[in-house]
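User: Can you recover a sequence for this backbone? Please restate the input before giving your answer.

Assistant: Of course. Working from this structure:
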């Protein structure tokens, strides 16, 4: 039987697997789905493991080519986070803090944050040098969002405000306030999701819901 030598350094212990009860799917993070039915992703010492449509996958961290983080806001429902992990073979795993029906779920924000932080913590220096780390919307989606925010601001805020000034009606002023409450979260979300790269060793709060 092998005995340890007093004072000798012990061998490093591998990080144990960690499971996260989050809804997942494969494909583009912008692809619309009616309902997400697959739940659960595991970080093991060397990679990830999940099952979608009865197919189990367990690629290694060395196969990751890109990690994309973004957040979004749903009016009167809240914010959610999306972590998209693309692998060299073209498969893209999308992990979110949404519930199965695609609505923001406050109870899943904490495990989502833990998953994202734990994933980055397990990456080696070689991994960080190879992987593309991007955040926010795509350029096209950001431009579209800005145009829609301008239109919404003009229709829901400026128009009622103009009516309030001209007519002096309190109802128009109320519509202006209601419009502002709708538009401001949209503008805030767009600012947080400006396309950019990020430092995997320093994850700031803007990357999380």
């Amino acid at each position: 039987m092998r005995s340890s030598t007093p004072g000798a350094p012990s061998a490093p212990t591998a990080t144990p697997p960690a499971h996260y009860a989050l809804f997942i799917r494969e494909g583009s993070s912008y692809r619309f789905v009616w309902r997400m039915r697959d739940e659960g992703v595991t970080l093991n010492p060397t990679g990830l493991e999940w099952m979608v449509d009865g197919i189990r996958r367990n690629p290694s961290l060395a196969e990751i080519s890109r990690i994309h983080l973004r957040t979004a806001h749903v009016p009167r429902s809240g914010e959610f986070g999306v972590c998209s992990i693309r692998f060299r073979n073209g498969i893209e795993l999308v992990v979110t803090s949404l519930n199965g029906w695609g609505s923001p779920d406050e109870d899943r924000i904490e495990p989502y944050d833990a998953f994202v932080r734990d994933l980055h913590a397990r990456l080696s220096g070689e991994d960080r040098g190879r992987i593309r780390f991007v955040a926010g919307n795509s350029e096209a989606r950001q431009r579209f969002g800005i145009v829609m925010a301008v239109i919404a601001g003009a229709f829901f805020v400026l128009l009622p405000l103009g009516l309030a000034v001209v007519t002096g009606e309190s109802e128009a002023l109320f519509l202006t306030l209601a419009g502002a409450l709708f538009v401001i979260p949209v503008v805030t979300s767009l600012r947080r999701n400006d396309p950019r790269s990020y430092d995997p060793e320093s994850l700031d709060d803007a990357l999380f819901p």
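That completes the design. The chain has four helices and nine strands.
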